[in-house]
Amino acid sequence: MLMDMKRSAIVSATLPLLVVLLSPSGLHGQEPGGPELTPEERAWLDNQGSIRVGPAPNFPPVEFFDEAGEYRGIVADYLALFEERLGIEFEIVRLPTWNDVVEQTIAREIDVWFEAAATDERREYLVFTEPYLRLPSVIIVRTEQTGSLVPADLAGRRVAAVEGYAVVEYLRDRVPGIDVIEVASVEAGLQRVSFGSVDALVAGAAVASFNIEQLGLTNLRVAGESGWEWQLSIGSRNDWPILHDILRKTLDGIGPDERRAIYRGWVSLEQPEGGILGIPSWVGWLVVPLVLVFLAVLVRSLRKGAAGIRLEGARTGWPVYAAATLAIVALVTGTWVAESRIAERMKRDVGGAIQTVLGTTSQAVYHW
Predict the structure, then answer these.
(1) What does each C-alpha distance from 199 to 191, 203, 276, 360 come to in angstroms?
(2) CA distance 116 to 76
(3) Model's pTM, two decimal places?
C-alpha cells in the first residue's frame, strides 16, 4: 500500500515534466529554428491571445498594402519569419495614416511596430531592439534644378517630409530656416515636388525609387544625401518588457544570409544587362569576332595580290564573302535591337510624362 502511494506520487510529480518535454515546443518552448524561450516567455506568448502590429500604410517597398489589401514588403517578410519561428500569428491593424498608427499605439491599441526609428519621444511608450534595417534618405528635386544639394542648402526652402516620421524632427533640428511641409505619404510628397508646390522631398532612397517608378514621374531626380539614415528597429510597448525580450531573441536568430535574401527580394542590387543604348552584350560578342575574321581574311587576300585572288576564285574568296555577310547581318540585328529599345524607352517616357501631367493637374485642382 505504501509503495503504491509512493509510486503514484512519483508519477504525478513527473507527468507535467514529461508533457513539457514531449510537447512540440520542447523544454524551452522552442519552435523549429526559433529562439530559445524561457518557460515564462513561452507561457506568456501562448496565453496572450493576439499581438497587434501597426504597419506604415504606404511605405513601399519597406511595408505597404497592395491593391488586394495584402500586407507586403521587406518588413512583411520579416514578420512572416517571426510568425513561423514563434509559432504564432500576429494581428495586422491597417490604418489610413501613420499619425493614426502613432495615436493608437500611445493609446495601447497597437502593441508592436515592426519598423520604426527610435526617438526620445517614442521611447515614452515603446522599447526598441537594435536596428536591423538601414535606409539612407535622399533629397528629391525636379530635373530642371541642376547641381547637387546638401542639407544646409535646404534652408529657406519648402521641403516635404511624411508627417509623423522621425525625419521631420531631424530636418527641423538640423537645418535652421527650413520650411518643412508634412505630407500624408511619400507618394503625395513626390507628386507635390513634381508639380512644383514644394521645392524638394526628403525620403528613403529605396522608397522614393519604388514610388517614382510606379508613378512614372520622369521629371524628378536625386540631388544628394540628406544626412538622415533610417535605422529601423522593432518597437514594442514598454509596459510589456517580456514581449521585447521575445522579439529581440527572434530577431537575433535571423542570420545575415536570410536578411540579404529578404532585402534583395525587394531592392535589386544588380545592374541591368546591356551596353550603350540598351543593346544586349551578346550583340557585341557576336559582331567583334566577325569583324576581326573579316579583316584577317581581307589582309591575307590583299597580300596575295589581286591576281591571286582572281585565280583562286571561289576556293579562297568564300571566307571573305561569308565573314562580310555575317558581319552585315550582325550589324543590322544590333541596329534593329537598338532602335526597338529606343522606341520602347521613348514610349515609356512619354507615357510617364502624360501620367505626371494628369496626376499633378489633379493635385493642383485639389489644392486649389
Answers:
(1) 11, 13, 33, 14
(2) 14
(3) 0.58
Which residues in 80-239 belong to E strands, given as ranges? 91-92, 112-117, 126-128, 133-142, 158-162, 179-183, 200-204, 220-237
Of the candidates 133, 165, 167, which has an alpha carbon nearest to the alpha carbon of residue 266?
Answer: 133
List the grid coordinates of 264: 534583395
CA pair distance 125, 119, nearest whole angstrom: 11
Partners of 179 in beta bridges: 158
Residue among 250, 270, 1 at smallest CA distance from 112: 250
pLDDT of 268 reads 60
Cell of 337: 535591337
Query: Residue 195's closest CA among 362, 17, 25?
Result: 362
- Residue 53's H or E segment, with its range, is strand 52-53
- The predicted pLDDT at position 142 comes to 96
Mean pLDDT along residues 116-135: 93
- The partner residues of 204 in beta bridges, in order of sequence, read 137
CA 347 centroid distance within chain: 27
pLDDT, mean of residues 96-107: 94
DSSP H or E stretch at residue 101: helix 98-106
What's phi and psi for 33, nearest 5 deg? 80, 0
Backbone angles phi, psi at 171, to 5 degrees: -65, -45
Count the helices and strands in the chain (H runs, E runs).
Answer: 11, 12
Strand partners, 128: 235
Burial class (CB in 10 A: 0-12, 13-18, 19+), 138: buried
- CA dist 197 and 148 (Å) reads 20
- Residue pair 127/119 in contact by the 8 Å Cβ criterion: no
For Cα atoms 128, 129, 134, give the angle at the middle one, nearest 5 degrees.
105
Nearest-10 crossing angle of helices 314-367, 281-312: 160
